Amino acid sequence: MQLGSCFLDSLTVTSFFGNAEMRGVFNDRQLMQSWLDVEAALARGQASLGIIPQAAADAISATARLEKLDAAALASDAEDTVHPLVPLVRALTAACPGDAGRYVHLGATTQDVMDTGFVLRARAGLDIVGRQLDELVRLLRRLALRHRSTPMPARTHGQQALPTTFGLRLAVWQSELQRHRARLREMRARLLVTSMGGAAGTMAGYGPQAFALERAVAEELGLGVADTPWHATSDRFAECLMVLGLVASSGEKLAREVYFLGRTEVGEAYEPQRATQVGSSTMPHKRNPIRCEAVIAAASTLRAQVPLALQTMVAQDDRDMGVGMTLWKLLPECFILIGGVLERLVEVFGDLGVNPDRMRANLDITGGLVLSEAVMLRLAGPLGREQAHHLVMRVVRDSLEQGRPFAEVLRGDPEVAAALSGGDIAELLDPLSYVGHAAALVDRALLTSESP
């Protein structure tokens, strides 16, 4: 994570929460270039059907590059027209040689070009998310295999519950991310389609070959064809942002786990720290989990946008630019945020500090109380489950109130001593004897889930 370059890129604190590759896709230049790409594809599709001359389509395609247009004229026209696309169409028309400009934007409407451009950028963004998610899953799987039998305390309700393994916890995390990978794949077919409704969704402006033109443009752009116009139906984008919200929520959970495990009092795992990294401007001993904190902030911000994404589905009539402009704002923000979330997590888990000795030491903090279930279940044989539960609860209470080791109180209790020998008690209070099928569950998770 290059803090310096992040801040210097745009001189804003918010740039810390994104990543450079995603910002390169979701900036104003790429926004306009995506619209130019759609205009060029429309011209090529029309030429393939004989609607416009091939030479005109070739000229439009060759000219539809932002660097070939008059930036000053674009800015001035945008101020005059107060319109998102018309200045770009005018600039492209003026820049085309000969009479090619007369065929620019033929039959199309602004929202066709804008929505299809948004789809193109979403595809590029999803490609980045997919690569990042693949890498994060790969790192978690590697760690899960390495620590499949590393014992640590399982915690429920904020307290130690039973022994588990760090590998199992990692395997659970990677399984959750695997489901997000599947969701992203399934969503693409619904999202990555052209918008070709024309002015009011009837495709009237595209003429008698409208359906053929729609297929041609979709093929030019590598997109699918929607069965109906979708100017007023934003469920595709809403679903996309909901899935990004799911990924962000899982990412925040992972960051919070590392944040907790790295506490001074816990010390079981921690965010990597560079030799030059400064934790605090005043306390040299601090090793602050700054990446995890950035993930928590970015993920919570992204998740807060999901209700607004759902609100965009409530469009009025056959077109509603209030919805369109909301998406114009939401899509870049959410993609940039998720790009930052995943980049930070890859950095954290790529070099995660793990302290197995501290995990084992923490297991021993309770003096064996963390094994109370194992003792209770062994006593359930001769005594019955209910009586065994009451007996062990009483022994636990005595141990805590008297400040005596759990094993000592167990050995001194007549009912327990009648059912268990000293050797039995020692065996039952060994954390390694009660991790259940944790290692096998790791193996099953890694075998049955997809390896990136």
From TrEMBL:
CDD domains: pCLME. Keywords: Lyase. InterPro entries: AdenyloSucc_lyase_C (IPR019468), Fumarate_lyase_CS (IPR020557), Fumarate_lyase_fam (IPR000362), Fumarate_lyase_N (IPR022761), L-Aspartase-like (IPR008948), Pur_lyase (IPR004769). It comes from the Bacteria. The keyword Cytoplasm does not apply. One of its GO terms (molecular function) is lyase activity. The keyword Lyase applies. PROSITE patterns: FUMARATE_LYASES. Pfam families: ADSL_C, Lyase_1. Residues 367-446 form the Adenylosuccinate lyase C-terminal domain. This is Adenylosuccinate lyase.
